[in-house]
Amino acid sequence: MPNWLLVFGPVAIALNHFAPGHYALIFASAAIAILPLAGWLGRATEQLADRSGEGVGGLLNATFGNAAELIISLAALRAGLHDVVKATIVGSIVGNILLVLGAAMLAGGLRYREQSFNLVGARAEATMLTLAVIALVIPAAYSVLVGGQYAGGERALSISISLVLLAVYAMFLVFSLWTHPTFFRGAKASENGEQAQPWTLAQSLLVLAACTVAIAWLSEILVGTVEPTAHAFGLSNIFVGVFVIAIIGNAAEHSTAITAAVRNRMDLSLSIAIGSSIQVALFVAPVLVLASLLVGPQPMDLLFGKGLLLAVFVAVVITGQVAGDGRSDWLKGVQLLAVYLILGLAFYLTPQA
Amino acid sequence: MPNWLLVFGPVAIALNHFAPGHYALIFASAAIAILPLAGWLGRATEQLADRSGEGVGGLLNATFGNAAELIISLAALRAGLHDVVKATIVGSIVGNILLVLGAAMLAGGLRYREQSFNLVGARAEATMLTLAVIALVIPAAYSVLVGGQYAGGERALSISISLVLLAVYAMFLVFSLWTHPTFFRGAKASENGEQAQPWTLAQSLLVLAACTVAIAWLSEILVGTVEPTAHAFGLSNIFVGVFVIAIIGNAAEHSTAITAAVRNRMDLSLSIAIGSSIQVALFVAPVLVLASLLVGPQPMDLLFGKGLLLAVFVAVVITGQVAGDGRSDWLKGVQLLAVYLILGLAFYLTPQA
Amino acid sequence: MPNWLLVFGPVAIALNHFAPGHYALIFASAAIAILPLAGWLGRATEQLADRSGEGVGGLLNATFGNAAELIISLAALRAGLHDVVKATIVGSIVGNILLVLGAAMLAGGLRYREQSFNLVGARAEATMLTLAVIALVIPAAYSVLVGGQYAGGERALSISISLVLLAVYAMFLVFSLWTHPTFFRGAKASENGEQAQPWTLAQSLLVLAACTVAIAWLSEILVGTVEPTAHAFGLSNIFVGVFVIAIIGNAAEHSTAITAAVRNRMDLSLSIAIGSSIQVALFVAPVLVLASLLVGPQPMDLLFGKGLLLAVFVAVVITGQVAGDGRSDWLKGVQLLAVYLILGLAFYLTPQA
């Protein structure tokens, strides 16, 4: 992605400030500017991954990638837009494992006949996603089955499950960064001679931080213009929440995961894609539930609609199958993308409530 | 199966023409005549499999086996019998992975302590089935959740998902026949010395074509008499659609898959059983939806009833577990057959609507 | 666990006889007395496991552990308390695979970086659990979809599925004890030099029998006081059925499975935990359904409530993922325990119906 595209960053900022009504133009320039930034972020992440193992590198990447989403969601929370926040959470979980991982496996599979990744780490991540699905399904089932019988039950369940998820996420970090980091490190990472000259640690961190800030800034502008732009094209609210914002918000992961796959570093690619979904489900979502007790007009619960839950469920089921044998090929990418497309069709055909 | 049973073929055809009211007699003679034909079809398929790899042989087999079902379903479609078509689709998917694969694993496991098959190909096929379940569940969920809010939504979703399925099926063929055929080829296939003298390619194709045509002819006679015969025995419509027609319609796959398993060629056995389910779900079903736009009194959608969807779901879940480790034993056969039996009991106890 | 705690056994029995109103005291002393007994039971089981393979040892253990539950459930059945029996069945299935296996994997994982177990046996057990879930879900789905259309349908389905389950369980015993016992035997079991002097067969059986009888006796006292004790602490009926009785009733498995895990005998640990769940689902539950035709005011069916079914479903799904790759670490234990905790929170917040 050529660096001169970076010039669209100032353009987006200027347009947003001086001509805020030109949604489609602002949207397009912010989106274009993000692409080279995401490329640089990917390069910095790869440099850090070389130092610290691919799992840690992927986790750093997922952390920085989701910082933008957390900031944006907190803004939406303050505005009381719980439905948008929930749609964005689901869209981010689903988008990372179906669209990002699917595109990475397809791109990697078109170049290599077969690619391998650390089976143990991938299975641990897939189990983490299953745990997340269970944590999101139980409150909804509770609401249907117990419902109004116990005032305050839904809120108490949402808050306590959020605390459980945060504790499990903390233990997952301990596991993947401290006690068992080798599970998330590719076997051939150190043999990979593609990187000509390694950056210093300071260089890597500086590029990472600068790109993150810039992407975060542009992401907010982008998201602010996504909805009016989308509506101008006749799309509904829930579709925008689940699909459009997620694709934009995860552009960084998208680009980095595909780059890693094309360089035959599938461990890094999986860590980015699945790790990002894990972080949204086990960290961002519970933090937003707890934060809603302090900011915003009313507390947000963990009750997701049936359509959103079904989307997360099918995405996690097929991801578990695809990630379960430590190898990938282009057909796996096609399978994940097909599920994403089917979900997209169903949400696209859902009229505004 | 002795060849003299072939004489029941002309008997069935003659009875059907001259004494069409003797349903049970026609049914029995057609069924008996199919057995040796299926045996010859299996032998021809094995000969072709020896030339082209077991995956391709299994796929050829599944294609020829399902040609009959497609013809019969098109006839039912023209008559507007959507419920029968859908029940037959589900019965065929479920029957191939539970009854055919279960019987093959049981028969093979009674002869060999443990049998192995190509893990990667089996997992790819299991993921394809999961994709099919998702594609069948989403329209039903859409119908429940969105329902009448958007006129035309269900039909648009059915047609667009059908197109996605056909595209994915085409890519699966490219994958299994062209880019990655070795995943569907048994490691020990070439070492198997049981075949005394190989047939020529022309001989194999001739036997395959002749048996297919004969089975197709007899299958139509068989299916035409199945319903009155079954009702004479006190069975309901939906049970006949899901179980009786599926068992008859898949007799060829059944016989060939068991023969392959007993000869310790589990890769061929799995390709036939799972491959046939994949073909029905990803090729026959969408083709019928699209064909219904041209033939028949009204278009058919992809909306399956909850009972049918649950049957497909549980069948695919347990098949994924059984096929996921590249080995089989007799207990796996028992487990698959037990699920088939439980589903059969539930449908058997369902009264006619 | 020090042996002098055994003195609490006579204390519990005496209190139960002479001061039956002191529920909490009786409960506490019976629970304390069970702990050393469970330890001795575990040691006797390990001795037998050394002789007969870990799978058989685990099965013996699961049989003796569940004998108490069967006796208690029969008493509840005679009293017509079908809801309590069903809650206990679900709690026992869920508790063994989430709490017992989770605690064992956590305890083992804190001592060993990674532990391995026989992949084939664990997968066979996980598939058996999936079969059990299907057998429990189908009657409930039948009831919702067919319902009152066919009088007697639910009872006929419950009885026939119970017979299928018993037949499959018998075949599973043949498989694990007779035709394929090595699948359930740990690779390193014979190399394990921790046991100083082996007991004689007579000694092992004597200790096993004595501990089983004592635990059975105390378990009944314990269960008799669990409900009033629990209510005194403000807990509801269903929570007590699913969680409190299950934890107490499976204390023996709990202790033995953790001891085995800490001694790096994960095959024994899995056989105990998953084997016990299998036995409850495929043996205890159908036996109770059939027994209810002879004892009790009215026959019990296999229809479980949606909340109970969802609990079993999510427990089996995550267990399948955790047990599917033949290795464990402390994070897997945390994941299983987190699901147990989430289910516990949901049932805890469910008010008495």
UniProtKB/TrEMBL annotation, chains A, B, C:
Residues 23-178, 204-345 form the Sodium/calcium exchanger membrane region domain. GO terms for cellular component: endomembrane system; membrane. One of its GO terms (biological process) is intracellular calcium ion homeostasis. Ca(+)/H(+) antiporter that extrudes calcium in exchange for external protons. GO terms for molecular function: calcium:proton antiporter activity. Pfam families: Na_Ca_ex. The keyword rRNA-binding does not apply. InterPro entries: CaH_exchang, CAX-like, NaCa_Exmemb, NCX_ion-bd_dom_sf. The chain crosses the membrane at residues 57-77, 84-106, 126-145, 157-179, 199-218, 230-252, 272-295, 307-324, 330-349. Keywords: Antiport, Calcium, Calcium transport, Ion transport, Membrane, Transmembrane, Transmembrane helix, Transport. It is a multi-pass membrane protein. This is Ca(2+)/H(+) antiporter. It is found in: Endomembrane system. Its main location: membrane. Belongs to the Ca(2+):cation antiporter (CaCA) (TC 2.A.19) family.
